[in-house]
Amino acid sequence: MKISIQLLGRFAVRIDDAEIPAAAWRRDRAAAVIKLLAISPEHRVHREQAMDAFWPDLDAEAAGANLRKAIHFARKALNAPDAIAISKEIVTFSPEAEVETDAARFEASAKAALRSKDPAECEAAADLYAGALLPDDRFLEWLDSPRQRLQQLYTDTLRAGKLWRRLIALDPTDEEAQCALMQAALDAGNRTEAIRQFDQLRERLHAELGVGPSRPAIELYEQALALSGTQPAAPVERIRASLAWALVHLQSGEFGKAADLARQTRAEALDAGLGREVGEAGAILGLTAHMQGQWRELFRSEFTEWVRKRSAFVPAVFDGHLCLAEFCLCDAKGHGLIAESANELLGVADEAKSSAGRGLACLILGEIARCAGNLDEAERLLTEAERLHVEANAVSGRVLVLERLAEIALARGQKWRAGRLIQKAFADAQGSWLSNHLLLRLQALAVRSATSREKLADAILTGDRLLTPGACQPCSMGLRTASAIALAQSGNLEQVDKRLNEAERIAGMWQGGPWAAALWEARGVQRKAQANKIRSVAAFAEAAARYEELGRPLDQARCLSQMNEAQMGVAV
Q1: Is the pTM of this model over 0.85?
Q2: 100 DSSP β-pair partners
């Protein structure tokens, strides 16, 4: 009997020449047994190792019983009762079976290619890598080490073979690969291709505000702009170079230089009619102020100045500050500090008759009312904010308004209405230069509003695909906790801990705030699903206390209700 197992890119098993149908793996643990054996040295694993991987929170007797069931269903799926054997506490494939995996084949070929350093061998080895190890199981911790090892081996093979385009396909932010292609284009006199490569790098790095290309990449870009015998650089090309240099200064801690260049570049972008670049320059200006603890003062000054100008670019200027304004609502001291400023800004916008200014002020005030539990007032303000954002053609702000209205619908138990609002917001978010931030936030609501197990699974999978290395970390917090809570409530506990550990790492970058409270709540749901009732009660109590400190009564009440349910379970 020959057992062929595909692990790269997808999971599939063939017995001799027949592939096991996907329906045979309806029981996750049956597939997990095959996967664990497939990645283990010599396809052998001690039963306790399997028990620890699959059921770390169960006692030995319960975990052992579950393992026996999983092996039974794995044999049944393979339609081969003798395919998996247990001998002296070791679980293995049958000694009579010939077992091969695509992962082992790739690993052997890649190691040989790296030893030879032959480009042709590197390319042949890279061709065997069909994708990440078991990509649909990215939150199973026991797969982390082999997945990282194989991906690093693939990366090393691509680099050794100078397969730059494939390396960029794997990681668009790989600057060595991007610079190599830019240099090759320059050597060939292809200015257009060098600029295209730089724009691709810049776009991907911009997924997280405050990150830009390196000095060598910018210098290659400027060489492309100055290439002799070509048309002069367009204004947008020069402006993008300036924005990249401003980010270099920002990352180097040269805040004065970054701010001066951002202001100058924004003025040039305004003259050139480039709305996105106006917003990007404003975002850099905001970040320099934020890093010096001066963002509130800058925002007040910018708001007052721009609403009075009545410029068509006011929404673009405000876009540059949206993420920082949202960040302030997550302050460790609660949302109260920004309320006074928002009312003041609304007065300024009213006086200037600025739709964009009034829309932004109503958005902030509506968010504050929602946080404070005043849902009717929040809905009134946010509905007005949506009208004003449409009037001002402020797309990004409208997406945030729709997001908050969807949250109000969820707080009222109206998943159907939340779903409709989310779909409207998704359509607008795709066209915003802040889409990488907005889509993460909306996908968190898609998870929370899912009305069936199938829709929930699709929403979580879509969200996981958005969590790329460059994803905005603060904007990803809602998605991470929402997915963890939904998975715990549906009994898929093996994926929960890693998600919450990642969220905990991100929340730890800031002291307090709603992210920390949300993590305590998610831990409470996790402990409840694990039947760890005492720790569940403690986690919900901590979450409720933190929400109370932040002035979020509805969130506090939800956690207290869950705490009381858990306490009743303890009493029983």
Answers
A1: no
A2: 4
